[in-house]
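One chain shown below:
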Amino acid sequence: MTDDVIRGLELSEFQADVLRVPESLDLFLGGGRGGGKSYALAALILRHVAEWGAAARALYVRQSFPGIGDFELVLRDVLPRAFDGATYASQSHVWRLPNGAVVELGILESPADLTRYQGRSFTLLCADEVGEWPSLSLVERLRANLRGPAGMPLRVVLAANPGGPCHQELARRFVFKAAPWEPFVDDVSGRDFVHCPSTFELNGFIDRERYARQLEASTVGDPELGRAWLRGDWAIARGAFFGSVLEESRVAVDPWHPEAFAAWRTGAGTIHWDPQVIPGTDWLLFLAHDFGVTAPAVTLAVARSEGGEGPDGRLYPRGSLVVFDELHTAEPGSWTKGLGYTVPRLAEEIRGFAARWGLHPDGVADDAIFARTGSGAGSIGEELRAHGVFLRPAGKADRKTGWERVRALFAGAGRPDVPGLYVARHCEGCWATIPTLPRDPRRPDDVDSRGADHWADALRYAVVGQRAGEAAMVTRPW
């Protein structure tokens, strides 16, 4: 029965791929408009009720009943064709199928709506347009209603377009955690998830050319929203400092794995930041650090390409920078508060971070941490060095110049003939803060330092200070 009902559906490539993901994995269908996410949800519900019969209780939720209307039409097309005798009660929004399965459509607008589902059991939870909720807290509370017989997979499927109020939470939890279609563990729910992206370009059941014109026309005054709807790009922040140059599809790269990284370094002859080596001969590996105590301290692991492939097999043009890992001391749940680490504790963390990649703990940092205090005590940079972390001044000029260089590299990402700036998807702090960093309202060429700018500052030090060690010709103590 299950195979028969699935074969009876006309599916796009995206929808077929969604159905191939094992049912033990939760799903995030995150893409642009017109990608076929709603029909994919209907196909998942249809397969679930066909396979599990009377044990199946599927719940589909939206924020409001008007939002349910479109999905009602989809199910009116799908369910009666698969099940003779399927009935729908429009007042209660409940489908009852001849095999005993039930499909319910409901709203979840406020905590008061949770009482509708109190004490009830569901085996499949589908939440559509979750980007329109202010957060996922209400949907997460519905997980308590997932109950079923032994051996039956209990699953949550979320669907959203980028650009809504919940955009940053969705991007942080599901989009930048791993490459598309690769399983990962969601830190909040502890569940194994897969991010399944889609765009209208892969949907052969619509007039794609006309649909693109409609989206472009409807977002003509908001190019970032247009990018989100057309391309399904989650690296957007309307009005943000990097908004016009930072696109997730170009900048985000798959995580580099330490084992492959070690093998690649051996084969490629990559070098550490060693001023005794003639520069320009191979890849350069270094750290970029922004110091903080009450604010987070951020350390980025950076690779500069001199041309050739990275450990991921991707070709990076000469001069490209890849942020392949990050370390930070942000307080859980806040990107602006630090954990208050002392310099010795911070140095210990940085040494361990570098050791995981087989790196020496050296690189660049803000010039300010190398200034001596009036009391005669050494600088923060000297104290870090005394504890085994060897940083050099980035030698930054004015902030405007630094940001211009960062923006230029972001703009070059993805082009085969110019250097670009790339960031690994699992660098959570980078993706949570840099795309949304606002402009300074008084200095539009600068970022607003009242925001969570610590990751962006570390990135700027990497860009402007990448050759500082080569010029300094300082001998290492090891």
